[in-house]
Amino acid sequence: MTLDVKIAPVRKSIRVKAPIALAFDVFTSGLTKWWPPNHGIGKKPIQKVFMEPRLGGRWLEISEDGVETSVATITIWQPPDRVVLLWQVNAKWQPDATMKSEVDVRFSADGANATLVELVHHKFETMGAEAGASLRKDVDGGWPGLMERYAREAESGV
Description:
By secondary structure, the protein is an alpha+beta fold. It is 26% helix and 34% strand.
């Protein structure tokens, strides 16, 4: 008998001094502006990181020699309130279409000119206990700095 493994989600939230539509747009369409180009899983050096802003769209990295690497697929697209990504990265930080952790990002207006952005990266158990725990530890350490970069970019667009 196998026991179901449960791995706690990674939860990060940040208040962004930007209207909700702008906050959503910078997170999705503006990924190139805030995601560090050296923070990728594909072939290096990376020329561009971007998200195709639509249901079924991909989070892509394109290397300088044109090789495309898919990082995630958008499974829920509800601008300006929510985007959910099927994260297709394994515990060794390599692209892997069989991986199914999930990044769920929700945007809530906090007055006219501010937005609460809540990110939950979860379903690590779909990777298996050891790999899921390893990836969870990495993303728990990585998302805070990435969210700070994102907030700075969103606030610079106001």
